[in-house]
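Changelog note: in this version the structure field was regenerated for every chain. One regenerated record is shown below for reference.
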Amino acid sequence: MGRFVSTILIAAAFAYTLVIAFFVVFTVGFFGVRDVTDDLTGLTFFTVVALSPLAVWPYCLRRAAAWRRGEHPPF
């Protein structure tokens, strides 16, 4: 069960990264770089969303390692 859950966690992180990458490419392709960087609020939101996989991967990797060790972390 631990290996299955850890595999699901890694797959979820990978899928999340693909969705965010599609979002970034679509947004830049549709609106252009100039429109994305015009206002500070949009640029801040875009940057936070684009960098969010950097927070998701360590979380999923830690949880996957814990599941492989036999621990069952609540969050």
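Spot check on this record: The radius of gyration is 16 Å. Residues 26 and 32 are 9 Å apart (CA to CA).
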